[in-house]
Amino acid sequence: MSSGPHHLELLSPARDADIGIEAVNHGADAIYIGGPGFGARASAGNSIADIARLAAHAHRFNARVFVTLNTILRDDELEPARRLVHQLYDAGADALIIQDMGLLEIDLPPIQLHASTQTDIRTPEKARFLQDAGLSQIVLARELDLDQIAAVRDALDPSRCSIEFFIHGALCVAYSGQCYISHAHTGRSANRGDCSQACRLPYQVVDAQGRFVAHNAHVLSMKDNNQSLNLGPLIDAGVRSFKIEGRYKDMGYVKNITAHYRRLIDQLLEQRPELARASSGSTRFTFTPDPDQNFNREFTDYFVNGRQTDIGAFDTPKNPGQPIGFVTRVAADHFDLMADSADLQLANGDGLCYWDAQKELVGAQANRIDALGDGAWRVFPKDAMASLHDLRRGTVINRNRSMDWVRTLEKKSADRRIGVWLKLAESPAGGLQLTATDEEGNSATARAELAQQAPKDAAQAEQKLREALAKLGETLYQPIDIAIDLSAPWFVPASVANALRRDAMQALDAARAAAWQRLPRANPVQPPAPYPEDSLTYLANVFNHKARDFYAKHGVKVIDAAYESQQEEGEVSLMITKHCVRFSLSLCPKQAKGVIGVKGTVKAEPLQLINGKEKLTLRFDCKPCEMHVVGKIKRGVLAQGEREAAEHALTFYRAQPVPAQFHE
Fold first, then answer.
1. What range(s) does the Peptidase U32 collagenase domain occupy (predicted)?
2. Same structural domain for residues 361 and 270?
């Protein structure tokens, strides 16, 4: 099975191969996972052997494995990256997710290439260019709305390039690939897989006159993405790959969220017969998927339906959980609570929390919980009661971790099977033959020598024969129908029926493996398509000569080096984001227009963010409705960069590209 314009792909993350295997079992059509290096999650790498193990399991269901190689590379890293890609290809990886265009200029195997979210695809022109450059799938910026996604769809050839879009998980506040705060402050580059997550810190927000606009607020911290209600409109807008964020997430998260979207997509597929899933089989779950059960900062659908006022998780970057009841009594070593629902079940180890008077989230993990009856519970917290400040009668208690839920997902929680039609008939050569045909049309036949013998009870014999053939529990398969096409009733011993069934399933496994095909590598158009712009700033993340060669070949005249080359020593935009602090704090001039007594008095003047000694300036570009977080690189980071440049013999050029032959 190869994916096409009518296939919908559920794309799940995997921190490791075991999580990836469970994602496949829970209904993923494709998995994305980090290899041994050069992935944009520095501590989520996996060995070649583990990639091969995951690919072998995924391919049995015609599911795919995409490996992230989406950091920007130094010149001295291009050759190790090239060798790694050949190893990944040999291990069975189906595609590479890349950011660095230098990879298109080196000798790679014919592996399919996908454009990472780090390539910052916001316009139809850039999307079309990447398609024409040979990328087969592109991850659009999370900030696009449905009309903008549809405009990209209209610019692409769906037989050559498909649209991938994040539907769930943590949100980077910046346009992906357009955040340099981590590098400027710590030397750890987000574009090289080592983000320090400055966006999750609390900040003082100060206006141009030095007045406090917000105090200790996480104003760059977004709620978590959840597009559960938008899948139909996203399909209509052209999305074909639905991506779950989370290569740092645990097994329980991946199982639950994969199962949640598998159910939603399957419901849509039932309503839309012109569409199909991108891999084989169907999945049954032992639990009811529920996104609220996993760590989340509450949910938003971000910009898909236009700018919203409530996209930020300004109060806390932690998981506030769901309200379950309220405190009725506080004692020296415990507190009592009354549940909102009589059906609520609590367990030792449950994660409880509440908001204190300063609107800070306070954790109150339960060491022991006793049921008092009639919806009342007694909680003995892990920490001393004295540390639970502002906990008093009437305090609303949330639960952000259910041990019963955790234990459910620690067990086997899904069963994925491929439907087969079985037909038992007389073999032309004598004896019996069992033919198995799977839901994709692959077929295999097993034969057994058996003398014809009439059974004592024909009806009972046929029933037992059907039962024996239907026992596919140890295989990937489940019977859709069993046809017995014999000229007369035969007595078929259970041992013969079982052997026929086993041999047929093994032969079908082999037929499916033989039919499996690699995804094709797209050929770039010739002559090379012109890049939509003729000059590139540090925002293009060009960090090696091969990437420079790529853009020069595509008509770019001026190419600045990536921010990580440390040639931008003054104040520059360290983050570009669609999120606007002014809008979120109701200080947007566009919001104020038409308000009596306010019109004309609110201007998009800069604001300042302060966290300890760190100061950043917010500048507002109102025409495209974007915010720039402005700052400069630290002296210590500059010195560290100079040492690394000397160690790796790095050289960066400005302005006119140097012809390729001068630096090969």
1. 397-512
2. no
Kindly tell me the burial class for residue 643, based on how many C-beta atoms sit within 10 Å of its own C-beta (0-12, 13-18, 19 or more). exposed
Average pLDDT over residues 186-206: 93
Q: Alpha-carbon distance 569 to 637, whole Å?
A: 10
Are 309 and 374 contacting, i.e. CB atoms less than 8 angstroms apart? Answer: no
Query: Do residues 382 and 355 both lie within one domain?
Result: yes
Residues 465 and 596 in one domain: no
Of the residues 384, 410, 436, the one at which a domain ends: 410
d(CA 193, CA 71): 6
What angle separates helix 48-60 from helix 494-515, to the nearest 10 degrees? 120
β-bridge partners, 628: 576, 619
**Contact (CB, 8 A) for 35 and 52:** no
For residue 38, what pLDDT band results from cuts at 50, 70 and 90? confident
- Distances in whole angstroms, Cα of residue 397 to Cα of each of 314, 329, 621: 20, 12, 41
SS3 at position 206: strand
265's enclosing H/E stretch is helix 251-271
Residue 526 identity (one-letter amino acid): Q
Contact 522, 529 (CB under 8 A): no
Residue at 305 is within a domain: no
| Residue 265 structural domain | 7-171+223-285+287-293
Model pLDDT for residues 39-90, shown as the tens digit of each residue: 767 667 899 999 999 999 999 999 999 999 999 999 999 999 999 999 999 9
Q: How many domains does the chain have?
A: 4
Task: Give the CA radius of gyration of the chain.
Answer: 29
What's the CA angle centered on 403, arms 402 and 405, to 5 degrees?
70
Residue 389 belongs to a domain = yes
Mean pLDDT of the chain, nearest integer:
93
CATH number at residue 400: 2.40.10.170
82 shares its domain with 216? no
Q: Does the CA dihedral 555-556-561-563 come out positive or negative?
A: negative
Q: Tell me: do 322 and 388 sit in the same domain.
A: yes
In terms of domains, do 552 and 656 share one? yes
Residues 239 and 272 placed together within one structural domain of the fold: yes
Residue 405 counted as domain residue? yes
CA 607 distance to own-chain centroid:
33
Q: Which residues contact 87 (CB under 8 A, 6 or more apart)?
A: 48
- In whole angstroms, what is the distance from residue 16 CA to residue 246 CA? 11
Asked, for residue 554, whether it belongs to a domain, the answer is: yes
Rounded Cα gap, residues 624 and 303, in angstroms: 14
Q: What is the DSSP string of 329-357?
A: EE-SS-EEEEESSTT----TT-EEEEE-T
> What type of residue sits at position 13?
P
Tokens 């989340």 label which residue?
Answer: 296
Closest CA relative to residue 10, chosen from 234, 341, 213, 327:
234
Residues 116 and 264 both lie in one domain: yes
